[in-house]
Amino acid sequence: MSLTAPPAPAPRITYGAVLGSPYVARLLGGTLTGQLPNGMAPVAVLLWATTSGSSIALGELLSALYGLPSSVMQPVKGRLMDRHGQTAVHLPATLLNSALLVALPLTGPYGGPGLATAIVVAGGLTTPSLRPGCGRCGRACCCDEDCWLTSGDVRDLR
User: Region 55-59: what's the mean pLDDT?
Assistant: First the structure.
């Protein structure tokens, strides 16, 4: 092969081929099902704050305080999943996060903004981390040499 020869064209991939691959539909369904509550929690916190009589500024602050600890803790949770497994990390995080989000409206006018802030930050710290789990599942379904995924970042998952 000469150095001036054009590279071979990449094969055309269809949605059917992708979704028909082993475990991909399950991975996609689980990711979408898991990401929906994670994305809606800040919206629910904002709606709760405004309907309970607080200002929209407090609601926005609480929503931001829910998302920030969640993003900061993602690498830590990924390492914990590598050491202890997904179930050992996801199950306690999910139960604690759900309990904290249920406790938030129950505090009502009793706790004030300080307690609401503490609950929201703790809820953000315990948000289930789905991205590292997706990477682990992606490795399981895309690690053969005849894989339909040809991008470098997916091959780096091996």
Answer: 91
12 by DSSP, 3-state: which?
coil
Secondary structure class of 13 (helix, strand, coil): coil
Q: For residue 16, which phi and psi values (nearest 5 degrees)?
A: -65, -40
C-alpha pair distances (Å), 153 with each of 15, 16, 33, 97, 157: 19, 22, 24, 31, 7
Alpha-carbon distance of 51 to 31, in angstroms, equals 30
Question: 21 burial class (0-12, 13-18, 19+ CB within 10 angstroms)?
Answer: middle
SS3 category, 27: helix
Hey, what are 115's tokens?
């307690």
- Tokens representing residue 131 in the block: 């991205």
- Element holding 63 (H helix, E strand): helix 56-84
- DSSP letters for 68-99: HHHHHHHHHHHHHHHHH-HHHHHHHHHHHHHH
In which band, very low, low, confident or very high, does the pLDDT at 155 lie, cut at 50, 70 and 90? very low
Give the residue from 132, 138, 130 showing the smallest Cα distance to 39.
130
